[in-house]
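Our collaborator T.R. sent over the components below with a one-line note: 'Predict the complex.' Nothing else. No constraints on interfaces, no templates requested, no preferences about which chain binds where. So this is a plain run: every listed entity goes in together, and whatever single assembly comes back becomes the starting point for the next discussion.
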Amino acid sequence: DGGITQSPKYLFRKEGQNVTLSCEQNLNHDAMYWYRQDPGQGLRLIYYSQIVNDFQKGDIAEGYSVSREKKESFPLTVTSAQKNPTAFYLCASALSYNEQFFGPGTRLTVL
Amino acid sequence: AQKVTQAQTEISVVEKEDVTLDCVYETRDTTYYLFWYKQPPSGELVFLIRRNSFDEQNEISGRYSWNFQKSTSSFNFTITASQVVDSAVYFCALSEAFGNQFYFGTGTSLTVIP
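Returned assembly:
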C-alpha cells in the first residue's frame, strides 16, 4: 500500500541529546514537509523539500536539521539547540500544488 | 500576516445537529488551492477536500459540504446531521501557485455530544 510512514511513534529524549525522526514515503511525491504541533495549536512548518538534495527552512527551523538524499526519505533531526522540543511531529508529502498526505506522527518527549 | 484564519477555536454540538466550520483566507495570488483536513484523536491528518481558485462550485460529499466564496475569501465546511465520529480537530489550509508551502489555520476542535 502506498503511504507515509513515520518512526518511532513515541520517542523520549534526555536533555542535550540529538534525536532523528524518520519519514518515508512510497507515493513518488516530489515535495516533503515537517511540521510541529503543540497541544491545542495548529501546525507550524519546520522544513520542506521540493526535490532531492534541496530543502528550505520553514517558520521554526532553529534547532532542527534535515536531509533529503533520497526522494523517498526526509529525516528530521532535533538537536540539543532546540530549547523546547516536546511536541507532536508530523511529516507530509505532496505532488506540486496538490494535497499533502500526512504520516501518523511522532510524539517526542524530553525527559 | 495570518493567511488562514479559523476564528472558532472550539465548537460543541449535540448529535444530529448541523455545524459549520468557518475558514477565511488571505492571498494576492489569482491561482491558489484550498483544503480541509480532519485530525482525529489518533493524530494523523486526513485529507477531506481540495478546491482550486477557479472553481467556486459548492461541493457535497455525503454529510459534508463546502461553500467557497471568493467575494468574501471564505471556504466554509458544513457537517449535516453530525455524529460522534465527527469529533476531531479540523484544519483549513491554503496553498499558493508559486512556492510549495501550505498555510494552515489554527484549527477548530469539534465535539459532538451523544
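Summary for T.R.: The interface with chain B takes residues 31, 33, 35, 40-43, 45, 48, 50, 58, 88, 90, 92, 94, 96-105, 107 of chain A (CB under 8 Å).
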